[in-house]
Amino acid sequence: MDDAKRTVHFTVRNTGAHEGTEIAEVYVALPAAAKEDYKRLAAWQRVKLAPGESKEVTLPLHPLSLTVFNTDQNGWQLLPGEYKVTAGPSSSDTPLKATLHVQ
How far apart are the C-alpha atoms of 47 and 72, rounded to whole Å? Predict the structure, then answer.
């Protein structure tokens, strides 16, 4: 996780005996001030892997996935606080966890 660049880095590995493709998904849960109780799909990448192969994946977090619409200011707002970032093959399977700190 690179807080300054708002990018996520992780490794995807094929532990099987056959070539395959994984869809690596990154989700973000906004700070409590956003009053959301769900996580947002912030980035994803299709990764093709040979048997036993590993690949490094670096994904930028889409700016709109980190903001809320402020009706008083009539614009998108990045809230200060801790953003919970998770990654994995699906929204129900996100074993990788990190925190993005926004001032």
Answer: 41
Write down the pTM of the prediction.
0.89
77 φ, ψ (degrees, to nearest 5) = -130, 130
Nearest alpha-carbon partner for 26 in 68, 84, 103, 81: 84
- Reading phi first (left if > 0) and then psi (alpha if -120 to 50, else beta), residue 73 is in alpha
- The pLDDT tens digits for 58-67 are 999 988 899 9
Could you tell me if 63 and 102 are in contact, meaning their C-beta atoms sit under 8 angstroms apart?
no
Going through the chain in order, the beta strands assigned E by DSSP cover: 7-13, 20-29, 40-49, 54-60, 67-70, 75-78, 81-88, 96-102
**Kindly report the CA angle at 60 between 81 and 14, in degrees rounded to 5?**
115
Q: Nearest 5°: phi and psi at 14?
A: -95, 110
CA–CA distance, 36 with 23 (Å, rounded to integer): 25
